[in-house]
Design a protein that fits this description.
The complex is a heterotrimer of chains A (309), B (429) and C (297).
Chain A lengths: L14 H10 L6 H24 L16 H5 L9 H34 L5 H13 L2 H15 L7 H27 L2 H8 L4 H30 L2 H5 L9 H11 L3 H28 L1 H5 L14
Helix pairs in contact in A: 4-7, 4-9, 4-11, 5-7, 7-9, 8-9, 9-12, 11-12
Chain B lengths: L6 H6 L74 E6 L6 H11 L2 E6 L3 H9 L7 E4 L1 H9 L3 E2 L7 H6 L2 H4 L11 E13 L27 E4 L2 H11 L10 H18 L2 E3 L2 H7 L4 E5 H11 L9 E4 L7 E10 L5 H11 L2 H12 L10 H6 L22 E2 L5 H15 L5
Parallel strand pairs in B: 1-2, 1-3, 6-7, 6-8, 10-11
Antiparallel strand pairs in B: 3-10, 4-10, 5-8, 5-9, 5-10
Helix pairs in contact in B: 7-8, 7-14, 8-14, 9-10
Chain C lengths: L5 H28 L2 E2 L6 E2 L10 H10 L6 H31 L5 H13 L2 H11 L5 H8 L14 H26 L2 H9 L4 H12 L1 H16 L3 H6 L8 H8 L6 H35 L1
Antiparallel strand pairs in C: 1-2
Helix pairs in contact in C: 1-13, 2-13, 3-7, 3-10, 4-7, 7-10, 8-9, 10-13, 12-13
Chain lengths: 309, 429, 297
């Protein structure tokens, strides 16, 4: 871009300089990066959109579009998600595990987050370290260890639904802690201290001041746990005891290895909608609860500090 | 016809079909290796006559070496009334027994029949041993029989309660070599291992080749569409049979190493794959040439053939007797049962011609070894198309000169498992 | 105003849970890997007392991992796949994170949502989507043949390393981009302005200011994706299922299917965890050094 002062004859820079200026202007938008970014976004999302599209295919092909139909969702009396007992059962099992996971991991995680954030004594660093470990442990290592512990040590819990729930909660707690902790840091101690100054007892300060302030993070944490649990594959597979405890990801895995039908796409899409619904719900709850704070201009991306390990 | 999607469960069990391990070491009953702080190999023991033994000192059965299993307790008395009321638990691979038939049994004897699934027979036995489940009857495979008996996990059978055994079952399997006198088992299903292919894609006349197994080593034209079963015993056994080595229970490291080396050639020949979904991938065309069990093409024909694909594209070959690995699954009574008489009657129930036929045709796809269910009947009823006739087994496929993958000593099992692991590791440096 | 024991008390249930169901299982893997096998049932017999540990199995696995052993090929291949996938993820992910963090302006929120979206899409669904696209008659082949980039359809799913790497990159890149974005977002614009004011070219400013400041973010993201990637076994199974593209996770999977040597599976797991701990330690040490530098600055 040439810088033009009013009234002066325009000097035309050589084409190459103009192009370089156009692409490398540090105060403008680099075109190359724009292209790469949008190309990435398309590459990232479009395959999934196509998969969803084919779940509505009228024939059993996953590659040749032959018309719109809902047969794979409920129409087909044999293979649709609604009618196929294996798929239906997997759906139910996934929802069961995810719900149990949320109900158990969220309270434990919230308490752990608060405890870790404020615990000054010895052992708090070790506990913090311990909490972070599941986030970076490869799932197969966790799967192996949980399988062995449930077949060698705690043999009263053999593989099955209970084992799967216990395994899910174990890796979910850390997600809740990380999310709630971020919120805790941005709240600080000021509100509870103000409450104490106004005469509140410690438990009142906790229950009537801190928890409501934490609510958006708790809901976000619950939604994340729900989503992570629904999409979990490795732990569910290692702790599964056969057909009855298979979840949707396990079904998708088996079907993809054999010969997937559009009903596989369909059940994956159903799971996607459920997950997005939970996340959207949490998002709106978060926004509703933090309406007041937004007016004071807190940066929305602060919460992404959760990714700093 | 039952819902075909319940099949994958049944055939997933094949993944873990126990020709692999779960059977035990060659240690005599009292020995342990705890004292050695750096050992991985078990102590080798041989029986009184110098032959290798399995768990608990039980001799290893082979088709030409019949074994009578000792009774660790007396079977129940004859003439007792069946127990009723409460629950009756069947422990099996998932979706391997038609639920409707279980309900019928439950109604007849006024019990609630529960069906508990195990991932594979080895983990099932371990769950049983650890007390995680307390079933009444359980599916069993001949190569796990030794350890189940040595571990006292299954009870001896009083055959007075199971007249269908002698009445309906193939003579060869009434008092089989692995359980002479049928003290602990009754047969449930049978199958063989061979080759399945799409004859519209693979043009060779595989059945007409001097050594049909060679097709895998000559399949460069079908690169990426060729697969073997993801089974330790089946893959190595196939390589052994191809070279004319008929002992599929060999423990000779040199033979196993050579078989594994042969299998590794397949990486470059056809980018070999390893999976157990042939019953679906062959009819769908995502695989063109696959090592397969005999029931797979029947299942493919009945359940998995997409509309528009003619059944004539499916082909199956298995070798003649003495060169083809055959196998049969069984059922046993668990020691944890509180309804032993009813358990006996269940064994009789599953050997009933009508029940077994319904289980096979309406649900399972696995052939029961009963006299009344023979190839001509299946052909005439359209269960099996004519060109897949050889997928059906007969009594003649079993006998002292048949091949059956059976229990190995602990050393043997490790050799096979390590060989398979070497093959599946994909080569490299 | 709160009692001192309140916070440890809050933390107690969580810590107890993690100890019982995370630490103890880890120890169980160790005890099995350094244990023996039950003679009759081939069940693993864990040895809990460190003084009695049987190192035979771990030594055996180490032998196999050494060059010439049966595991050396698959171990090297796993490291290769992870390294190449990480490099590709960074190559694609860094520009994207950079653009969104620094330049996106009004479209930033929309882009952020699109960035976060893959997190909520099941990994397996994303792989399923690619398996469909890469089928012989899938859109990828059709597009490539249509644009004459390919003469005839390629068999993407026939057991090729390139397909596995593509799948790994696609699967794990969202987990890299988001932390990278968060780190880049934190970098103060004024540093860059200062560099430009001092005469640095845009490229030089990037190399000397932005890149070093984002090192922590790069490392964090790299750790977040390579550690799980090392244990991946389902991605090769879904897009390839050929032994030639298997990863070390497939071997672990194999030995835990009721075979006579679950101890080998446990030993591989222990060695894999040890290897990853070394990587983690390197990461922590770098973070520690970087934060010390930042504090000194």
């Amino acid at each position: 871009m040439s810088i033009v002062a009013e009234g002066q004859p325009k000097e035309r820079l050589p084409a190459w300089s103009r192009f370089r200026g156009w692409t490398t202007n540090p105060w403008g938008r680099p075109r190359f990066l724009v292209v790469v970014t949008w190309a990435y976004v398309l590459w990232s999302i479009v395959p999934v959109l196509i998969a969803i599209q084919f779940s509505f295919n009228a024939t059993r092909s996953r590659t040749a579009w032959q018309g719109f139909s809902t047969r794979w969702y409920w129409g087909d009396p044999v293979d649709s998600v609604w009618h196929d007992p294996t798929l239906r059962h997997a759906l139910v099992q996934s929802l069961k595990l995810a719900s149990a996971d949320v109900l158990i991991a969220t309270p434990i995680g919230v308490l752990l987050a608060i405890g870790l954030a404020r615990w000054q004594g010895r052992g708090s660093r070790a506990s913090n370290f311990l909490m972070l470990f599941p986030l970076v442990t490869p799932e197969i290592v966790m799967g192996v260890s949980l399988l062995l512990v449930f077949t060698q040590v705690f043999t009263f819990v053999h593989t099955g639904t209970v084992a799967q729930i216990l395994g899910h909660v174990t890796f979910s707690i850390s997600y809740v802690v990380v999310i709630v902790r971020g919120r805790l840091f941005s709240i600080g101690k000021q509100y509870e201290e103000a409450a104490a100054d106004l005469g509140a007892s410690p438990s009142a300060a906790l229950v009537r001041v801190l928890f409501p302030l934490l609510m958006p993070a708790i809901v976000a944490g619950a939604a994340v746990v729900f989503a992570v649990s629904i999409d979990d594959f490795v732990i569910s597979q290692w702790l599964s005891s056969g057909g009855g405890t298979d979840t949707v990801p396990i079904q998708i895995y088996s079907a993809t290895r054999a010969a997937p039908l559009p009903s596989t796409n369909a059940i994956a899409s159903v799971m996607l909608v459920v997950t997005l619904g939970a996340i959207a719900l949490a998002f709106f709850v978060w926004r509703a609860f933090t309406r007041g704070e937004r007016r004071t201009g807190a940066k929305p991306t602060e919460s992404l500090g959760v990714f700093e390990i | 016809m039952a819902h075909p999607k319940e099949r994958p469960g049944a055939l997933t069990r094949r993944t873990f079909l126990l020709r692999t391990a779960g059977a035990a070491s060659a240690l005599s009953a009292g020995g342990f290796l705890a004292s050695c702080s750096s050992s991985t190999t078990p102590e080798e023991t041989t029986g009184a006559k110098g032959e290798p033994v399995g768990p608990g000192g039980l001799p290893l059965a082979r088709p030409d070496r019949r074994v009578t299993l000792p009774l660790w307790e007396d079977p129940i008395e004859s003439g007792l009334e069946p127990e009723t009321g409460g629950t009756f638990t069947v422990f099996n691979y998932p979706a391997y027994f038609y639920k409707k038939l279980l309900k019928d049994f439950g109604k007849k004897y006024d019990v609630e029949v529960q069906y508990t699934g195990f991932d594979n027979i080895a983990s099932g036995i371990q769950r049983l041993a650890s007390g995680g489940v307390k079933p009444d009857v359980m599916e069993m495979t001949p190569d796990n029989l030794d350890l189940a008996v040595a571990g006292k996990l299954i009870k001896p059978i009083n055959l007075d309660y199971v007249p269908n055994l002698k009445k309906n079952v193939w003579p060869e399997l009434v008092s089989p070599f692995y359980d002479v006198g049928s003290h602990y088992t009754v047969p449930y299903t049978c199958y063989a291992t061979g080759i399945a292919w799409r004859n519209d894609k693979v043009t060779e006349d595989i059945a007409g080749m001097p050594q049909p197994w060679d097709i895998f080593w000559e399949s460069s034209a079908y690169r990426g569409k060729v697969a073997l079963l993801s089974e330790q015993r089946e893959t190595i056994a196939m390589a052994l049979l191809r070279k004319g080595q008929l002992d599929v229970n060999t423990e000779d490291p040199k033979l196993i190493d050579r078989a594994v080396a042969d299998l590794k050639e397949l990486y470059d020949v056809c980018n070999i794959k390893v999976d157990d979904v042939q019953y679906q991938s062959i009819p769908e065309g995502t695989s063109w040439l696959h090592q397969a069990w005999s029931g797979d093409m029947i299942a493919a024909y009945i359940y998995y053939l997409p509309k528009g694909t003619p059944a004539s594209v499916l082909s199956y070959w298995k070798a003649e007797k003495g060169k083809v690995p055959v196998q049969n699954d069984c059922f046993s009574i668990c020691s944890t049962t509180k309804k032993p008489v009813l358990a006996h009657l269940f064994l009789n129930f599953l050997l009933d011609n009508g029940v077994a036929y319904s289980n096979f045709v309406d649900f399972n796809g696995y052939q029961p070894p009963l006299d009344e269910i023979d190839p001509s009947e299946l052909l005439s009823k359209g269960i099996v198309p004519r060109h897949l006739q050889n997928s059906v087994l007969t009594n003649d496929d079993f006998g002292p000169d048949s091949l059956q993958e059976m229990t190995l000593t602990a050393r043997g099992q490790r050799l096979w498992e390590d060989g398979y692991s070497d093959f599946v590791a994909g080569g490299g440096s | 105003m709160y009692r001192r024991w309140l916070w440890p008390g809050f933390a107690f249930p969580g810590v107890l849970w993690l100890v019982v169901l995370f630490v103890v299982p880890f120890y169980a893997v160790l005890a099995v890997a350094l244990g023996t096998v039950d003679p009759i049932l081939s069940r693993p017999v864990p040895i809990w007392n460190p003084l009695e540990w049987n190192v035979g199995w771990v030594v055996e696995v180490l032998h196999r991992l050494a060059p010439g052993g049966t595991f050396s090929g698959v171990a090297v291949r796993t490291v290769e796949y992870v390294a190449i996938s990480l490099a590709l993820c960074l190559l694609v992910g860094y520009p994207v994170a950079y653009y969104i963090a620094r330049h996106a302006g009004r479209t930033r929120n929309a882009l952020l949502i699109l960035l976060i979206l893959p997190f909520w899409i099941s990994y397996l669904m994303r792989m399923l989507a690619w398996v469909n696209l890469l089928s012989p008659d899938g859109y990828v082949n059709r597009f490539l043949v249509f644009t004459h980039a390919l003469g005839q359809p390629r068999d993407w799913l026939g057991g090729h390393p390139s397909t596995v790497i593509l799948a790994l990159v696609y699967g794990y890149i969202p987990y890299l981009i988001l932390p990278l974005y968060a780190a880049l977002d934190r970098i103060d614009r004024s540093h860059l302005e200062a560099a430009r004011d001092l005469g640095a070219s845009p490229f030089s400013a990037f190399v000397h200011v932005t890149l070093p400041l984002s090192k922590v973010g790069i490392l964090g993201g790299a750790v977040l994706i390579t550690l799980p990637m090392f244990g991946d076994y389902y991605t090769p199974n879904m897009v390839s299922s050929a032994p030639q593209t298997s990863m070390i996770g497939n071997q672990i999977d194999l030995y835990f299917h009721g075979g006579p040597q679950p101890t080998i599976g446990a030993a591989i797991t222990v060695l894999l965890a040890a290897f990853l701990t070394v990587l983690m330690a390197y990461y922590m040490w770098t973070i520690h050094r970087a934060s010390r530098e930042l504090q000194a600055a």
